[in-house]
Amino acid sequence: MSEMEPVIGLEVHAQLNTRTKLFCACPAGGSVEPNTHICEICTGQPGALPRLNGRAVELAAKATLALGGQVNGYSLFARKNYFYPDLPNGFQTSQLDPPIGTGGSLSVAAGDGGRKAIRLNRIHMEDDAGKCVHDEKRDRTLIDLNRAGVPLIEIVTEPDLSSSREAMEFLKTLHSLLVRLEVTKGRLEEGEFRCDVNISLKPKGSSVLGVRGEIKNLNSFKFVGQAIDYEIRRQSALYESGGRVEQQTLHFDHLKGETRALRSKEEAHDYRYFPQPDLPPVLVSRVKLREIVQSLPPPADTIKESYKELGLKEDTVTALLDRPGAQAYFEEAFKRFPEAKRLGTLMVELFLPALRQSGTDPQSAVMGPAKLAALARLMSDGVLTKKAAYDLFPELFETGADPRQLVEARGLSRVRDESTLQGWIMEVIAGHPEEVKKYLAGQTKILSFLVGQLMRLSRGTADPQKASASLTQALEDLRS
Ligand SMILES: [Zn+2]
Description:
This protein is of the alpha+beta class. It has helices spanning about 55-65, 165-180, 220-240, 285-295, 300-310, 315-320, 325-335, 340-360, 370-380, 385-400, 405-410, 420-430, 435-440, 445-455, 465-480, and strands at about 5-15, 70, 75, 80, 90-95, 100, 105-110, 115-125, 130-135, 140-145, 150-155, 195-205, 215-220, 250-255, 260-265, 275, 280-285.
C-alpha cells in the first residue's frame, strides 16, 4: 500500500457584525427570551417579502477585499431547499452563482519554515437557521427562531490544506483578521465563527482525490485539530484493511474524541437551488468598493511589527488584535501613558479577562482607557504596589472610579515610612510565636508565610521586597 496524504478543505461560517438580521429589522443576536427577535419575514410567513441589509453586503465585500479576493459587482441570491424543523421557509437564502466574492488567499506557516498560500474558492452571504431546543422535562423539542435570518458569510477554501496544524493555523489567522476588521464579533462559544471540514486521503503524489468525509459545525480550534487527526486515522485504517471510505456527513463528539456518521451523502448536492425571486440582484458600485478599500486597516503584520518595537511580547500583541476594540482601547491609553509594556500587561492580566467575565466590549467598559492609564502611572510612580493595584482593579473595573481618588480615599499609597513597617513587623512576630520558633530552628521556608501575614496587615501597601528584607533582619536580630 503506497503512502497516503490528507487533502483538507474548509467551509467557514462567520456571523456578520450587523445590528439587524439579513432580510428584516429584527435584532441579530443578543441573548434574550426565545422567539422574541422574530417577525413575519424571518419566520417565513406567506407573502412576507425580504429586504436586504446593506451593511451585511458591505461587510461581506470588506472581508473579500481584505482576503485579496474579487468583489463581484453583480451577485444573486438563491433558495437552497431542504426541510428541517428550524428552517421556517423550507429553504435557506444563500448565494450560488455568482457569489459576492471570488478567489483570494490566506497564507499559513508551512512545515519547511516557509509560507504556504491557501487559496479561497468563494465567499458568499446567507442567512442562519433557528435552533431546536430539547425540553427534557416535557420530553419534546421546541423551536427558537431568534437566530433565523441572522447574516453569515461562508468562506470556502480550495482543498489546499494538508494537516490539522495547517487547518488550525488558517482558522486562527482568519478569525483574527475578521475580528480586527470588525466583520464579525467572532465569539466562538456563541457559534459566531464555526466551520465544516472536508477531508479525504490520496496516494502521495497522486492528483486523484479520494472519497471525502465532511465534519460539520466545529466551533473550537482545538476540536478542529482533534477531529482532523481522528478522521485521518480512521480513513487510513479503512484503506489499509481494504475497506472503502464512504461519502458521509460526520459529527465530531469531543467527549469521546471521535467522529460518527450523521447521514450518508449518497444524495450529495441534492439541495435543488432555485433563483430567489423575492430579491433583486446585489449590486456593489465601484465608488462603494473604493470607499471600502480605503477603510481597510493596515495589515496585521505591520501592526505586529510596530507593537513589538514598543516592547510588547508576541502573545500580548495577539491578545490585543484578537479582541474587537482592544487595540483601539490600548492606543487611547497609550496616548496618556506611553509605557507600552506595563499597559499591555495590565490589559492581558486584568482588563481583558474582566471583560470576558462580564461580557462587555472594550468600548462600553465603564473603566475607560484614561483610567487604565492612570492606574499604570500610579504603579510606575511607585505609589501603588503591584499587589495593591491588582486588589483594587475589580472595583475600578466595576465602578469606573478614578484610581487616584480611590487610592487617596483608602490610604492605599505604598508605605515608605520605616516606623510603620517596623510596627507591622513587631505585630507579626508577636502574633506568631510558633512560626518564629520554627524559623529560628532552621525552617527558613516559613519566612514567606510571615511575609504574607505582614502584607495582609499592610493591606498590600508594603513593598514586598522591602518587607521581606526587614522581616528577615528582625528575625536574625532575635537569634542573636
Ligand atoms: Zn425578523
